[in-house]
Amino acid sequence: MKEMNAKEQMEIYLQSHKIESLFNEEILPYLSLYEFDKGQQICSQGEAVENLYILVKGKVKIFTTSEEGKTLILSFKTPLEVIGDIEYVQEIDTINTVEAVSPVVMIGVRQSVLRRFLKDHSPFLQFLLRIITRKFYIKSQFMRHNILYPVETRLASYLVSVAYDENETLVNGNVSVSNLTDIANLIGTSYRHLNRVIKEFCKNGLVERNKGSIVIKDLEGLKSLAKENLYE
Fold first, then answer.
1. Per-residue pLDDT at 168
2. Which of 13, 141, 153, 161 has its CB 3.0 to 4.6 Å from that of 149, i.e. a possible disulfide?
3. Partner residues linked to 107 by β-bridges
């Protein structure tokens, strides 16, 4: 993580995402820009929360880890998204781990500062309400997709989500097969069935397996099969 001292860039992000009204003049000096490299963790499950982050550039993945050490990817997020909103409202430790899938830029502010300056600021509170209720809606849609869509559609959507950022720029064309169990858990199928579907994708020229990775060969074909971003 690298903190950026860039007032002009901050203003650009606030204006481009139309979120200037979320903040009053008192809190503006306390806002910071943070850069995270691909693979860096923004926050970790179970740790105390210090900052609330607003994702303004890049893509992140959100996952949880069981007591046995098994991980389950829950979703992928692109701008505009908030990290730490539920923790802020509930005053609890971090629920899930958030990791950068591509280079990421966040607007960050300490939660103690938020409570000091924005606890009664209506635009910010309404924004949080929209973000949190949208998460519940997406969770409901996610459960519906895992019931209604075939595994082929779900896997295609996952591959598109993990490999490309919010601008459809390739950030991870090689998807590791070492975590196939995690992928199977996410899309709601068995490890054995997932392997069969991957073999079918290879046969149809959508992907190929190479040295422990799934290499995406036909993005448009995967998008067509995915129908929509089920995990974003």
1. 58
2. 153
3. 33, 54
> Which pair of tokens denotes residue 219?
């993005």
- Going from the N-terminus, what domains does the chain have, and what CATH number goes with each? 2-126 (2.60.120.10), 146-226 (1.10.10.10)
Q: Which amino acid is at 67?
A: E
* Burial (Cβ within 10 Å: 0-12, 13-18, ≥19) of residue 198: buried
Report the C-alpha gap between 172 and 138 in whole angstroms.
Answer: 24
Structural contact between residues 123 and 21, judged by C-beta atoms closer than 8 angstroms:
yes
Query: Which of 191, 189, 220 is CA-nearest to residue 204?
Result: 220
What is the pLDDT at residue 219? Answer: 84
Residues 13-36 pLDDT 10s: 999 999 999 999 999 999 999 999
Which residue in the block uniquely carries the two structure tokens 């300490």?
110
The burial of 194, by beta-carbon neighbours within 10 Å (0-12 exposed, 13-18 middle, 19 or more buried), is given as buried
Q: Residues 6 or more apart from 86 whose CB is under 8 A from it?
A: 92, 95, 132, 135
> Which positions ≥6 away from 184 have C-beta within 8 Å?
190, 191, 193, 194
pLDDT in tens, 107-138: 999 999 999 999 999 999 999 999 999 888 87
Task: Tell how strand 104-110 and strand 51-57 pair up.
Answer: antiparallel
